[in-house]
Amino acid sequence: MVESLEQDITNFFTEKPDSVYVADDLSSYERLLAHACCSYNSLTSRSKKINQLPLRAMLYQLCTGFDDDNCRRRKLRVENPFSRFHPTTPRLSVYLQERQAGAAVAAAGS
Question: What does the pLDDT read at residue 103?
């Protein structure tokens, strides 16, 4: 999952370093991983709550005080603060795999 998210984000900024990457279909866990990938690659990311309801339903919520968090979701917005983009080497997914393999070897040797 980390590898896929990281690849999507880094491919996007490799092709369009001055654009904004937006995703609104990620779970909270996927957003967490995406924020980690962004931080690792020196990208700025933030999540913002967006409302999925039409205007009439939002007005009803305001008038009645009814607020249902299930009617909302979060949008991830990622920007590159630099004029160019080069993915960090090794990629985060590779670094994590190497670290996990090193920990397993160390545990086996104990």
Answer: 85
